[in-house]
Recover the amino acids of this structure.
């Protein structure tokens, strides 16, 4: 009882900042937008109906899933060697390596995207190299399109994937790989026959987390897409602040939430499965 | 086993991807040119000068710093007792409480920000200090609770039991024994929640207005319109600041542990 | 001491953890005289630590009472019990010096700064650490930390001293020395002490009384020699020391009939029925095949040496007899004549009726 009492202040603030807005969001998603664009109090699922029947929204959902799914997969693939390296490194290097991989989490996302603009832009590092070497006549368009968004997203998801993989791989006994080596497996075979199967639950958990974060990413698609890439998150933002259509924005947000909750349940199931096996 | 050269190579590429943006920001922020071109036509400090004399950004910086300080103080104040309860006490519903307190971190900030806008706008609380503090507390409190729980849990329970057997009341034992030993974690939690609030962008986008705006929002809007070395200088300043904070946390309790999920 | 009330009395002490099928501590009752050292001995999970924690007030009993000097303390919280506890992990406060640790209990009692410092220093000197009072726990070795924990517990001049496996974190080499020091200090101060251990050597060497525990119950409460030589239950016979186990039947007159129809004499007064007999190796006398037994050795077994294991001071012998495997031992030095014995050699084993401990078959 005293436990709940000690937590009461925190719960009170969160109720005010979390439960109340979420309830408001749900309530407003049931309101109606009139022809003139004004909001009218109602209890209707009109906004949901409009969204589900809208070709553009369906395309948006598909694009969002493809972007998030592929970016998450690339992020996990790039994060795996980093996490393996952290695990294999001597204790002296383990800390600094992990720190390098995770520190970007706390560096402002916008700041990092500005770095990517300097790398990928028409006058950026990569195009300067390509054109300097005579490999291309004109700049290779790497930003203000899906490619740029994907690259930025991969980088922003990587630290999370590294974190999940370090935790997941930490439970694997390195002696298993040594055992495989003593049994005559080469490094590549050891990786594919021992390390990878054992890491599979951690990889799946990392991908699902990255997927969830990727689906709801806003800053990256907005800045790297240069206003030409549309995903669910940018649409919610535009509906709420550009068109001030609150019922539509709320309904879209509720749909996003529903999808994410499903994914998170799946993630919990995977974690349980992986935990049960370990 | 020693890592193979192949693993080293792939890992190096992964780290390169993670560190490249910071490195490029560093280079172009000292550019003497007018655009984000690489290589820069020359080097100068002119964009840092321009940054520190940019009235709009500087006033947003002051707002953000003040807001982050207030938010991290609030988060620690309400988060520490909750974290102590989760880490130390055995009571019905402890798991539920921990989940409840972490719940906001699971949801996209975009949705949280939208929800806050919808309920705060009718009350005239958008672009006000209370509104922004509430919005930032939403991410800061779960963060503070998580780090403080780790910090409290790292202090062996036996220490408190030992204090009791020596005649300390539960309250005195918590204050004289557990709290001092969790203090580095508390400072780390303070630093990290400060940084979380200071860098918070998406929720703020919904809650700012011409009257009151934060640095990350102004930076985002600036970058949406145009990219020049001024914004790189700002990005570099933020990166340096974040790295300093990370170093402080690393020294206090280990950054990886502080950020770790269970 | 006769007639005096026990210093510590446990009456039907019970602790049942939610979810567990059986109680962790099951109706434990015992009396401990003032100034005595009691060892709670048993395998892990037998309830010995839970019992100690209930005495300290760190765990709440579900039933029964704890009396200290005749006063019921069952409902008192730990900070009002005056128990000096040494934890298995020592639980030294890392943010305080050795002196700060030793003074903590005195500070909680509201003693003045000077008095605290004086008594903390005295406690540290008592354990031989007077010179290291300014060190923090992490600057001390394991053995030194253990002494600081002891000094901290003794500084409050406790009613009872409670030690939870205090030697288990020490190197094997240090353990014996520290064990003797703790015993000497305890006897000098006359502090009534309860000591939890899973190590029978520790329990037998240090204690005035040993309580052997299993599955939450006290199997036997007796002085060390009695525990070792006259185990009261089958569990005590198997847990303390080594013994050969023979299966058979108890017949009237204390005759134990075992494999091959062999009849062995015992001093057992149990009712006839299926039984098990235990025989300790050091009670078995080795004879040459035709040698007559010394007087009093009523039982004779013909045996064949199956295996010998050299362990330094003793050579452990495993023999096969008609009654089953029986262990014996040779002492290097006194049993020189037997050293050449090789597996397969015929032997004769003799032992007294009183050395065969018989219990009903489980």
């Amino acid at each position: 009882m005293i436990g709940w009492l000690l937590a009461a202040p925190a719960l009170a603030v969160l109720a005010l900042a979390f439960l109340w807005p979420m309830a408001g969001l749900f309530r407003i998603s049931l309101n109606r937008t009139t022809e003139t664009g004004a909001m009218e109090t109602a209890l209707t699922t009109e906004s949901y109906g409009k969204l589900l029947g809208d070709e553009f929204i369906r395309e948006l959902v598909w694009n969002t899933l493809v972007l998030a799914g592929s970016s998450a997969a690339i992020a996990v693939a790039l994060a795996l060697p980093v996490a393996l390296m952290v695990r294999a490194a001597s204790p002296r290097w383990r800390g600094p390596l992990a720190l390098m991989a995770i520190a970007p989490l706390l560096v402002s996302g916008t700041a990092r995207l500005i770095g990517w603009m300097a790398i990928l832009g028409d006058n950026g590092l990569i195009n300067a190299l390509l054109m300097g070497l005579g490999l291309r006549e004109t700049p290779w368009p790497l930003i203000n399109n899906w490619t740029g968004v994907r690259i930025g997203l991969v980088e922003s998801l990587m630290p999370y994937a590294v974190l999940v993989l370090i935790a997941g791989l930490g439970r694997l006994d390195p002696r298993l790989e040594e055992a495989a080596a003593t049994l005559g497996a080469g490094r590549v075979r050891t990786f594919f026959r021992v390390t990878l199967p054992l890491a599979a639950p951690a990889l799946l958990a990392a991908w699902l987390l990255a997927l969830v974060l990727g689906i709801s990413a806003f800053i990256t698609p907005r800045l790297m897409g240069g206003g030409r890439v549309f995903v669910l998150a940018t649409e919610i933002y535009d509906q709420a602040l550009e068109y001030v259509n609150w019922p539509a924005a709320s309904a879209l947000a509720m749909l996003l939430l529903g999808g994410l909750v499903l994914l998170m349940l799946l993630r919990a199931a995977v974690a349980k499965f992986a935990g049960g096996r370990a | 086993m020693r890592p193979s050269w192949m693993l080293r190579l792939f890992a190096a590429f992964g780290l390169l991807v993670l560190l490249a943006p910071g490195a490029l920001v560093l280079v172009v922020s000292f550019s003497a040119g007018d655009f984000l071109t690489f290589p820069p036509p020359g080097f100068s400090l002119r964009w840092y000068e321009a940054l520190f004399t940019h009235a709009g950004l500087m006033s947003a910086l002051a707002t953000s710093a003040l807001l982050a300080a207030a938010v991290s103080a609030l988060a620690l104040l309400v988060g520490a007792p909750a974290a102590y309860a989760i880490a130390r006490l055995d009571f019905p519903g402890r798991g539920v409480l921990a989940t409840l307190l972490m719940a906001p971190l699971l949801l996209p900030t975009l949705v949280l920000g939208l929800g806050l806008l919808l309920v705060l706008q009718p009350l005239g609380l958008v672009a006000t200090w209370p509104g922004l503090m509430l919005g930032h507390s939403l991410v800061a409190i779960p963060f503070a609770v998580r780090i403080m729980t780790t910090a409290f849990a790292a202090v062996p329970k036996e220490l408190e039991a030992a204090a009791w057997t020596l005649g300390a009341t539960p309250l005195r034992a918590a204050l004289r024994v557990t709290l001092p030993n969790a203090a580095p974690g508390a400072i780390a939690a303070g630093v990290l929640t400060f940084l979380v609030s200071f860098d918070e962008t998406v929720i703020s986008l919904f809650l700012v207005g011409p009257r009151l705006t934060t640095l990350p929002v102004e930076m985002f809007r600036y970058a949406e319109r145009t990219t020049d070395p001024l914004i790189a200088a700002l990005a570099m300043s933020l990166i340096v600041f974040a790295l300093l904070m990370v170093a402080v946390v690393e020294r206090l309790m280990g950054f990886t542990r502080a950020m770790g999920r269970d | 001491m006769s007639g005096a009330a026990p210093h510590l009395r446990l009456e039907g002490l019970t602790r049942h953890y939610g979810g567990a099928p059986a109680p962790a501590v099951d109706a434990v009752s015992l009396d401990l005289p003032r100034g005595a050292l009691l060892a709670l001995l048993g395998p892990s999970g037998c309830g010995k630590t839970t019992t100690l924690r209930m005495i300290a007030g760190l765990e709440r009993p579900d039933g029964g009472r704890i009396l200290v000097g005749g006063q019921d303390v069952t409902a008192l919280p730990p900070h009002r019990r005056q128990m000096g506890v040494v934890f298995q992990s020592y639980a030294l406060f890392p943010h305080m010096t050795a002196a700060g640790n030793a003074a903590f209990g005195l500070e909680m009692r509201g003693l003045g700064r000077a008095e605290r410092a004086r008594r903390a220093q005295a406690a540290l000197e008592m354990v031989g650490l007077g010179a290291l009072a300014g060190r923090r726990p992490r600057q001390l070795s394991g053995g030194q930390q253990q002494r600081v924990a002891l000094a901290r517990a003794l500084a409050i001049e406790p009613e009872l001293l409670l030690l939870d496996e205090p030697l288990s974190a020490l190197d094997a080499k240090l353990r014996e020395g520290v064990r003797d020091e703790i015993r000497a200090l305890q006897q000098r101060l006359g502090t009534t002490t309860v000591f939890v251990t899973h190590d029978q050597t520790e329990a037998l060497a240090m204690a005035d009384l040993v309580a052997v525990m299993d599955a939450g119950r006290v199997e036997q409460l007796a002085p060390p020699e009695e525990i070792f030589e006259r185990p009261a239950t089958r569990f005590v016979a198997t847990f303390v020391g080594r013994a050969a186990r023979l299966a058979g039947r108890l017949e009237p007159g204390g005759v134990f009939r075992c494999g091959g129809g062999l009849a062995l004499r015992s001093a057992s007064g149990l009712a006839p029925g299926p039984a098990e007999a235990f025989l300790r190796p050091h009670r078995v006398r080795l004879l040459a095949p035709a040698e007559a037994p010394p007087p009093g050795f009523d039982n004779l077994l013909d045996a064949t040496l199956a295996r010998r294991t050299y362990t330094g001071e003793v050579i452990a012998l495993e023999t096969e007899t008609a009654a089953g495997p029986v262990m014996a031992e040779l002492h290097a030095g006194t049993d020189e004549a037997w050293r050449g014995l090789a597996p397969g050699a015929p032997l004769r084993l003799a032992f007294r009726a009183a050395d065969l401990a018989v219990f009903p078959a489980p």
About this structure: Chain B touches chain A through 100 residues (CB under 8 Å). Chain B has a mean pLDDT of 91. The longest helix of chain B spans residues 55-88.
